[in-house]
User: What shape does this take?
Amino acid sequence: MFQHKYFDHEDVHYFHDKETGLQCIIAIHRVVSGTTGGGCRFFPYATTQDALNDVLLLSRAMTYKNIMAGLPMGGGKAVVIGNPDCDKSPKKLAAFARCVESLNGRYVTACDVGTNEDDMFLVRGGTRYTMGAKGQGGSTSPLTGYGVYQSMRAAWQFHTNRDTLQGVRVAVQGYGGVGTYLINHLKEAGAKVVVADPHPEAAERARDAGIKAVPVSEILFQDVDILAPCAMGAVLHEETIGRIQAKIICGGANNQLADMGCAGKLMRRDILFIPDFIASAGGIVHGEGHYHGRSESGILATVENIYDTTTQVLERAREIGQTPLASAYELAEEKLRHAS
Assistant: This one.
């Protein structure tokens, strides 16, 4: 029996394909204009309940991410239970495609942790409801990183009244797709970057690029101006918040807060937390834009608008005297009411 205190979704679908061993859950949080969009996470969850918890939270965040980015779709998400390094196969991806197709467009899938544009290309062979496949715009990571960069610029401007990141110290957790592209923009802007990644080859790649790499256990607590979580979620919790030295947190990871109360704890420490569903919207903007045949210039302009959205959220929070997370939720709900 599935149980969850945040269970306010329209649909939750559990699929098990006996032939391939596929186990996946697709959660549809809020349908807008007849559809939802969000990535497919392929991850070795310890239990099915853990997978359910994750997909419910992720799909809810996608609703707010999509509506705040101005996209005509609600939030959905898929999780496949398994280790992508050894359990992922063309047959299993084909089975997943059949799951997506069975929902008749209520959910459009894309890449996430454990899946990539090649996987989406295979999925696209079994369903039209895909974003970010090879030949369909490709990887969403470049524009996710660029969107985080735009949000970070806005947060720094709001916090310091400075419009440049020259000399700003930034710690980036994760040197994968999003982290790599974010760091490229930061280096071009003259920021001083330190990074950590659990994969030794990624950390070595960072060092080869002239970036200081530190142990994963130390990255959150670096003496920096800005912290950018760009790996897995729930890294901001009771044990970590008290040790963070950065004054701004702005990253690409989903669901960075272990619970909603952490937003208040960060505010009490005078740490400016940018809701991840605001900062990391560039990827879904890219995917949705190519899915609907929008122009490259239009897609880029929408990603760059993340700067203005971040500023709007922060100004509202300051005016009302609440956390940026609370302001972002309120703005999103207002937009959802108008979209319904």
Remarks:
- The first helix runs from residue 48 to 68.
- The mean pLDDT is 95.
- The longest strand covers residues 22-30.
- The chain has two domains: 11-60+73-124, 141-280+308-335.
